[in-house]
Automatic annotation (TrEMBL):
Principal place of residence: membrane
A cellular-component GO term for this protein: plasma membrane
Name of this chain's protein: Putrescine importer PuuP
Organism in which the protein naturally occurs: Marinomonas spartinae
Taxonomic classification: Bacteria, Pseudomonadati, Pseudomonadota, Gammaproteobacteria, Oceanospirillales
UniProt GO MF annotations: transmembrane transporter activity
Zinc-finger recorded as keyword: no
Keywords: Cell membrane, Membrane, Transmembrane, Transmembrane helix
Membrane topology label: Multi-pass membrane protein
Source organism superkingdom: Bacteria
Chain segments annotated as transmembrane: 32-53, 59-79, 99-129, 141-158, 165-187, 207-226, 247-270, 344-363, 369-390, 402-420, 426-444
Pfam families associated with the record: AA_permease_2
Compartments, record wording: Cell membrane
Length: 455
């Protein structure tokens, strides 16, 4: 593991380029944590409450505990790689470092499926609620408004995006805190179980690991986004190799605690409640147990705060992966152009925004397919990450550490494969088509000159 960057890259056939551009280093730990939290969204368990409750058999809080433990292994593999590779490319750069150029390209291609489509998914979701609140504006126009707002904020640089994300995260924590407080007051008033009990976490009568694990498989997807922090590897104020890793683990820990506590408290309101639609379960629960005003208020806050802020880090992240792959000539080189004033990858941002907008408009009535494709891209990227860590540090390293270099990637890969096993067949076919297209493009592109990756 004492090889220099040039030694590693020479073995991979990479040549030095004179026109390598670098992003501006301006972010600290606070900004990185805010960025990751904004991507995941502290309100995530509220928006998916009905789905997880149904599948988990009511053990929703325990499902989030299990999901947090599962995601630890993927987060730890990210930490391992982030300490070695400070690059904007995330999975692309990490897999390239661990398995070589072609595998790196495939890793980047797969994670692009996640990063390109997840903003479109959020825009489509938000267009439903905003259209209900303001029906005079069509869903298509709401998508245009949401995409345009996010693009303009990201245009002015990662500092602006990070500050907007910080304010959005604070607002979301206040929202979650408000819902939890209202739930506690309702419980004290005799609603639900009449008190905060541990029933959503465990009860010996109805307990079943089958339900818990099924729920956890959905909860795992609520954590998608902590990995976006790694796309900012070239924009930290210092070159501290451990900063990105610290931010990842802080975000995972915070979300694990918040998600578990939120679902534990709200889950106690479910006694005697039947909702008509799992997608709107939280609104129906609040309307029945607290009052219609609480449901309407939450709907407005979600539409305004999440709708106009949650996609900021999403669009920013995909732009940086496109930038890194364009800079390395794995994708068209114009994607690596930086704005002369704001030092943002503006061409990559433009392309990402166009793709996101087109996808959102075309797939506005196919949420299930969009969600499945996002999951396919993320899980495929995670799988390659674990393999890269195992090969690079577990097999080819005499100073290997058994836990982080061998046990973590093996367990992490097993968890990813388990989640894959329950994925929709049609999504697997579409994801496989995307992967096949990437393999063909990568093989054609293999002969082009690549640049030295920064490690």
């Amino acid at each position: 593991m004492n090889e220099t960057v040039l030694e590693v890259t020479a073995k991979q056939g990479i040549k030095q380029s004179d026109d390598v551009q670098s992003l501006k280093r301006s972010l600290g730990l606070k900004e990185l944590v805010a960025y990751g939290l904004a991507f995941i969204a502290p309100v995530a368990p509220l928006t998916t409450f009905g789905f997880v409750w149904n599948v988990s058999g009511g053990f929703i809080a325990l499902a989030y505990v299990v999901a947090t433990i599962c995601m630890y292994f993927t987060a730890r593999s990210y930490v391992t790689m982030s300490e070695q590779v400070q690059s904007a490319g995330s999975i692309y750069s990490y897999v390239r470092f661990g398995l070589g150029n072609f595998a790196g390209f495939i890793g980047g291609w797969l994670i692009l499926l996640d990063y390109l489509l997840i903003p479109a998914l959020v825009f489509v979701l938000m267009s439903f609620s905003t259209n209900i609140l303001v029906p005079s504006i069509s869903r298509e126009n709401w998508i245009l408004i949401l995409v345009g707002t996010s693009f303009l904020i990201n245009w002015f640089g990662v500092n602006v995006t990070a500050k907007a994300s910080l304010y959005a995260v604070i607002a979301q924590f206040l929202m979650v805190g408000g819902v939890v407080a209202l739930a506690i007051f309702a419980l004290q008033d005799g609603k639900g179980t009449g008190a905060v009990t541990l029933e959503p976490l465990y009860n010996s009568v109805d307990f079943s690991w089958h339900y818990v694990l099924a729920g956890a498989s959905i909860c795992v997807l609520s954590f998608l986004g902590f990995d976006a922090i790694t796309t900012l590897g070239e924009e930290t104020r210092t070159k501290d190799p451990k900063m990105i890793g610290r931010a990842i683990m802080i975000v995972l820990a915070l979300c694990g605690v918040v998600f578990t506590v939120t679902t534990l408290v709200v889950g106690n309101l479910m006694k005697g409640i039947e909702y008509s639609n799992p997608a709107t379960a939280i609104f129906e629960i609040l309307a029945i147990q607290v009052g219609p005003w609480a449901s309407t208020t939450l709907a407005w806050l979600l539409a305004i705060i999440v709708g106009f802020s949650n996609t900021l880090p999403m669009q920013s992240s995909v732009a940086r992966v496109l930038y890194a792959m364009g800079r390395d000539r794995q994708l068209p080189h114009f994607l690596s152009k930086l704005h002369p004033k704001f030092q943002t990858p503006y061409m990559a941002m433009l392309v990402a925004t166009i793709v996101t907008l087109a996808t959102a408009l075309i797939m506005k009535d196919n949420l299930d397919i969009l969600a499945s494709l996002v999951n396919f891209g993320a899980l495929s990227g995670f799988l390659l990450l674990h393999v890269a860590v195992f090969v690079r540090f577990g097999l080819n390293n005499p100073d290997r550490k058994w836990f982080v270099h061998i046990i973590v990637p093996i367990v992490g890969a097993a968890i990813v494969l388990a989640v894959f096993s329950g994925m929709d067949r049609f999504a697997m076919i579409l994801g496989g088509t995307w992967l096949s297209a990437g393999i063909i493009y990568g093989l054609v592109n293999r002969q082009k000159t690549k640049i030295v990756m920064e490690v």
